[in-house]
Amino acid sequence: MTRLALIAHDEKKPELIEFAQAHRSQLLEYDLIATGTTGKRLMEATDLEIDRMESGPLGGDLMIGAQVAEGRLDGIVFLRDPLTAQPHEPDISALLRICDVHDTALATNVESATYLLEGVANSDD
Fold it and tell me: Is the pTM of the predicted complex or chain greater than 0.90?
């Protein structure tokens, strides 16, 4: 089964919720994980079943990165806020780096997230 991670910085959580609502029928077919607060808000807004990791600043980004390193993730949607400094920036950089090292699809905005879902859907055919 396809396994995707959903992550969003605080300022981007509403965008991720809108994205998940728009693509709910497709996301229902996947095994989903998310960082803590993002996962909670997504479940409340969409009724999707999501395995929640810790919040990003508490290690959730690293927990998702570990799953990338273990080959357990097919892709990540990570809506980042490029205009706000994040206290856990080293963890974010490590997650981005591990995606590159393991050639894992990573979308950092809604447009690329849409393409990621299209690619995942086409690879399931």
Answer: yes
